[in-house]
Amino acid sequence: MAHFSGEDEVMLQAMLRQLFQSVKEKITGAPSLECAEEILLHLEETDENFHNYEFVKYLRQHICNSLGSMIEEEMEKWTSDQNQDEESGYDTVVQHVTKRIQESKEYKEMMHSLKNIMMVVVESMINKFEEDEMRSQERQKKIQKEKSNSYCTDNCSDSDSSFNQSYKFCQGKLQLILDQLDPGQPKGVRYEALQTLCSAPPSDVLNCENWTTLCEKLIACLSDPDPVFSDRILKFYAQTFTLSPLHMTKEIYTSLAKYLKLHFLSRENHIPTLSTGVDTSNPNVICLLKKVRLLNEYQKEAPSFWIRHPEKYMEEIVENTLSLLSVKHDQSHLVTQKILDPIYFFALVDTKAVWFKKWMHASYSRTTVLRLLEKKYKSLITTAVQQCVQYFELCEAMKAGEILGHSKHCGSKQKTFYYSGQELQYIYFIHSLCLLGRLLIYTQGRRLFPIKLKNRKDLVSLTDLLVLFTQLIYYSPSCPKMTSAAHLDNYSPASMVTEVLRILCDQKECAMECLYNNTVIEALLQPIHNLMKGTKGAPNCSETALIHIADILARIASVEEGLTLLLYGENMNSSEEKSPTGAHIIAQFSKKLLDEDISIFSGSEMLPVVKGAFISVCRQIYGTCEGLQVLIPYCLHESIAKAWKKTSLLSERIPTPVKGLDSVSSVNQESQNIMAWEENLLDDLLNFAATPKGLLFLQRTGAINECVTFMFNRYAKKLQISRHKKFGYGVLVTQVASTAAGAIALQSSGFINALITELWANLECGRDDVRVTHPRSTPVDPIDRSCQKSFLGLVNLLPYPAVYLVGNQDLPNKAEYSLREVPTCVIDIIDRLIILNSEAKIRSLFNYEQSHIFGLRLLSVVCCDLDTLLLLEAQYQVSEVLLNAQEENILETSESHRNFIIDGLSVERNHVLVRINFIGGPMERILPPRVLEKGDDPYPWPMFSSYPLPDCYLSEVTRNADLKQDNDLGKLLLCFKMSDKQTEWIENCRRQFCKMMKAKPDIISGSTLLELLEKFVLHLSENLSECYFPSVEYTATDANVKNESLSSVQQLGIKMTVRYGKFLNLLKDSAENDLTLILKHCERFLKQQQAPVKSSLLCLQGTYAGHDWFVSSLFMIMLGDKEKTLRFLQQFSRLLTSAFLWLPRLHISRYLATDTLESGIHPVYFCSTHYIEMLLKVEVPLVFSAFHMSGFAPSQICLQWITQCFWNYLDWIEICHYIATCVFLGPDYQVYICIAIFKHLQQDILQHTQTQDLQVFLKEEALHGFRVSDYFEYMEILEQNYRTVVLRDMRNVRVQST
Q1: HEC profile for 204-265?
Q2: DSSP-derived 3-state class of residue 291
Q3: Separation between Cα atoms, residue 1238 and residue 707, nearest integer Å
Q4: Closest Cα to residue 206, out of 252, 153, 254, 167?
Q5: CA atoms within 13 A on the CB side of 681
Q6: CA pair distance 162, 175, nearest whole angstrom
Q7: For residues 460 and 468, what is the distance between their CA atoms, to the nearest angstrom?
Q8: DSSP H or E run through 966
Q9: So what's the pLDDT on residue 636?
Q10: Which member of 388, 607, 767, 1015 has the lowest number of beta carbons within 10 Å of its beta carbon?
Q11: DSSP H helical segments within 931-981, as ranges?
């Protein structure tokens, strides 16, 4: 300090000025003082001239003079110390020396000296600040002067931050400014005072004691006719909003809001009226709009940070805002002379009420807003509703031709600076609409209704408001054709209302309270009623309005509660005669559109879009089981297929474009429109496949191949399945794969090919884009996560119909396989992954063990379908291949002792061999685990490589132990000897059966069950009212059928049945011949009732494709008695139950409609499983949702269960109870038992949905713990609720053609 002279001070000031002048732009561009300080601290990194600044050179020289010798000494010392060690890096030397210097006494003295010097310099600069400014004002222009002030202010603030100095806006200075701002002062003085105020930090101004007085002065300045004054004040306000914390900006916001409120209430201010409109080129209007816009911008920004401050600040802002918006002028004069309220100007600057949307988003502010609206400012809501009502009345009163002038607010390409009264009313209407739409989303907002309006007797309820919104869609004027699309979408009345309704639809609770009632639905459907009935005097509903209505209806139909309302109305259980529900009206209208029965739209360019929109609504309905049931009478599948075929022909006839750009573009546009419409129709047809019965209808149209190809193309492009579908293609694929025609369509479309190619890439090849430096991790799970999706996809695609397609093909079994040879079909997968019976196949796999385990797991799941197992066994001898593989896995330690090598493959093969060779329910067989146990014996289960299999895999259960008859059973048998009226007798038997099933179900088994079934079916077959099929005379003897042959699948099925029957002590060794004769008799008996069918489906060529599991089960129930079994089957074949328990009964039967026959779909699929899905959605909704989330259909697994009579899934006694229950109580109990099973499995299903292996669980796992008798009471409730519908449809299988 002693050597610091006045000249040094002047020199340093010049250096600092040069530095700040150079970085002025960077500092002034900083959003805050903290950012400006950061810029200066990192200047060396960002400024290439940093080392050329004189101030930087001065600092460097000062450091060198003070610490230079010390730095050199430290470096020499460090170097000498390190001579004997390894050579240190340069960075290490620098770090060490820097640390030593910073800890030294000399460094601290230098920093203290430098800081004192700089404090003197900065203080001197601050003292000269005002003097320098006064001089510069005389030489520079106003704009340059403002920039200089801002620059100096920032520099001073920065100095304050750097050197712990502060420059405060002193009270005396503020008082001087207050005096100078007085309206009596000359204009120049007031302006200079304003400039000084704006150059000061806003925080200093707001913290002054005289802030309240200053606020009054600022409000007075805002009213000054000179726009310069108000602009400068607004700039000060804006600067405050940007740089100050909430408690300061709240003061500014409040003052501005209060000023505007006083401004609008004052009669001296010339506020525009509704009749004169708003001219935005008028200076007064511009000034007012700037103030409103500034307030509105802050409204939109405040919610992002006010939660960090006390609630009172937010409440004050909200209350001042609502108070301002609630301002109303005296309405005693004419409406046309009405002075515009503040809300009109807010609507001008924020038409869609974005500020309100942001305030309502968070509960923090929403609670306050709604409380104040309810207690003090409900008039704001009332006027918003009033505005919507007035706009509707205006639309209603004016005819279409007269409304054109009013509709110019919809959009115009010509830029205008003037808003007429009508346009202002419309803008206010849009603002009100958006505000109300946002309000209705929230429960507390809906509680503000009903609303009382002036000049209206009745209160406006929520329903009234929603009906009003709905009517606005088709009553409001259409926009002119020249309107730009973007503008039309943003601000046309119908679009705005539709957007509000969409948001309400997406909020379930809100939609249920507001939209899901008959009144609103009727309002939505009113224009459709008018169009179909040709009502005179009804408003002309445009195509655009119809598209908007269809959009809302589709959203309603996509939600369960909305769909129920459309299907049944609000009082679905009411027996009163009512008008058709929404679903019926929509279906009728859609059908008329498709058949082009509505002349009003003929020739319209928008007609295909209207059609597509309403079919989309229907698609939401018929994509569900209950919805399809309601829409069946309208045969929409036929109308859509007819329209598709017509469009398909049109697309083929598109003319070849000729030379000339116009013709080419027009033809291209036409072809694109036709192709888009064709795809839309295919998509609509495809969605019939979402339900079993819908799939039957789809196959009847003959378009299933095209639909599946279309689905595959969308799947390949990774496109969404549908706008309102929550999950992907899994359910559709599963449904389609469950039928023969669907399996063929999937194969021909390339779907299976693509899935297998993708699987092979994941299993064997890996991804092409993965670098060699990052090899794939070794899989830990038997099926790697990368292959899990493909595995589940194959499981979905390979039920029996799909496997049957390849059943007659031989395996390639090539001598050599190329490593680049990729499988493309199911037979390739069997050849390359499952039946690895040659060294060539093993060598062709990169990951032999992993890939073979994948194949064995797939085989295990697929073979759970016993028909598939028999087919693979008959065609490829799967068991023999696996046994041979186990034989090769033996380690011979001596001639008498052979040990199996236990590895992943041998354990997996052992599991599969036990699964496919032993039949039994959960308590009857034991499947070996697939994992090793801890301890000395990791796998205690015996392996084998030849027959017979070890008995340890069969449970030691009580086999065929007939219980003694008790009194209840005696009553049950006694009722067969009574000679009451037939109907009473049948009902009495059924009651006794139900009583026994609930009390002592185990009694109903063995010979007792045999006697019960025999006598009951005999009585039913003699009662014509109980017979569904006509009697068929059958006289063939054993000698007549002895020489007939059975399929290899049937022969293997007979062996399997006898093996199971002997295990249960039900059959003897001679049973195999008897069962063979029974099946031959059945084939001849049923052949008498079959009809010739023209079909390319392999499953319809000849006899039933699978094994007859019902006859096998019945043979075991009859304890191997051939005569009793045949007699029972002839009697039973007359009953309706036989159609659903005995699947071969209706194989190409003449009792089925021709189109049903040709589809190859069994009534069990399109009737039983259809109702299983329908009831599952109502009774066990979580399970139904789990299926959809897993991409799996309940119908596929139920069809498998029913086809094989629950073999391997239930114990024998439960299988008997299943058959007896359906025989005694009716075929609809087949549906109820499946629902009971899903209810029983609910927790397991939810768990396996989470682990993403639901399909595998349902197919592989037996139904542990399920007993038919445990759910008898539940099934009786299901019968009471659903029998009328289910049984009626089951009785209609003979006349199913629609």
Answers
A1: HHHCCCCHHHHHHHHHHHHCCCCHHHHHHHHHHHHHHHHHCCHHHHHHHHHHHHHHHHHHHH
A2: helix
A3: 31
A4: 252
A5: 26
A6: 29
A7: 10
A8: none
A9: 96
A10: 767
A11: 967-974
- Partner residues linked to 898 by β-bridges: 892
Half-sphere exposure in the Cβ direction for 162 (13 Å, CA): 19
Mention every residue, 6+ apart, whose C-beta is less than 8 A from residue 868. Answer: 798, 799, 800, 803, 862
Could you tell me which residue, 896 or 278, shows the higher pLDDT?
Answer: 278
Q: Span 1253-1275, mean pLDDT?
A: 96
- Strands 890-892, 418-419: pairing kind: unpaired
Does residue 987 contact residue 948 with C-beta atoms inside 8 Å?
Answer: no
| Nearest of 288, 297, 219, 208 to residue 252 by alpha carbon | 219
CA separation for the pair 736, 1196 (Å, rounded): 10
Q: How far apart are CA 693 and CA 713, in angstroms?
A: 24
Q: Within 10 Å of residue 157's Cβ, how many Cβ atoms?
A: 17
Tell whether the model's pLDDT for residue 575 goes beyond 50.
no
Residue with tokens 């609008």: 264
Residue 768 has pLDDT above 70, yes or no: no
Q: What's the pLDDT score for residue 957?
A: 62
Contacts (Cβ under 8 Å, ≥6 apart) of 482: 412, 413
What is the amino acid identity at position 1172? I
Average pLDDT over the chain reads: 84
Q: How far apart are CA 675 and CA 685, in angstroms?
A: 15
Nearest Cα to Cα of residue 1055 among 826, 1259, 874, 1250: 874
**Cβ atoms of residues 346 and 325 within 8 Å:** yes
Contacts of range 810-816, beta carbons closer than 8 Å, 24 or more positions apart: 811/835, 811/876, 813/837, 813/838, 814/840, 815/840, 816/840
**Residue 306: CB atoms within 10 Å:** 22
pLDDT band at 145 (very low <50, low <70, confident <90, very high): very low
> Which residue spans within 828-895 are E strands per DSSP?
890-892
Mean pLDDT of 1259-1285: 96
Q: Which two tokens stand for residue 460?
A: 């406006």
Q: Which of 603, 498, 511, 491 is nearest to 556 (CA)?
A: 511
Nearest CA-CA partner of 753 in 692, 822, 671, 854: 822
Question: Which tokens is 956 given?
Answer: 């030691």
Tokens standing for 1138?
């036989």
**List of residues 6+ apart from 1157 with CB closer than 8 A:** 1091, 1093, 1100, 1148, 1149
Asked if the model's pLDDT at residue 535 lies above 50, the reply is yes
Computed on alpha carbons and rounded to an integer, the radius of gyration of the chain in Å comes to: 43
pLDDT for the residue 1297: 39
Within 8 A by CB and 6+ apart from 278, the residues are 272, 285, 340, 344, 348, 418, 419, 424
Angstrom distance (rounded) from CA 1207 to CA 1200:
10
- A 10 A CB-CB count for 979 gives 6
pLDDT-derived band at 152, boundaries 50, 70, 90: very low
Angle formed at CA 1230 by CA 1229 and CA 1236, multiple of 5 degrees: 80
Render 111-173 in DSSP notation, one character per residue.
Answer: HHHHHHHHHHHHHHHHHTHHHHHHHHHHHS-HHHHHHHHHHHHHHHHHHHHHHT------HHH
Q: What is the pTM of this model?
A: 0.80
Neighbours of 595 (CB within 10 A): 12
What is the rounded distance in angstroms from the CA atom of residue 470 to the CA atom of residue 475? 9
Strand partners, 899: 891
Q: By the 8 A CB rule, do 1191 and 1254 touch?
A: no
Among 230, 240, 234, 171, CA closest to 203: 240
List C-alpha distances in Å: 696 to 154, 689, 702, 712, 1164.
79, 8, 10, 20, 12
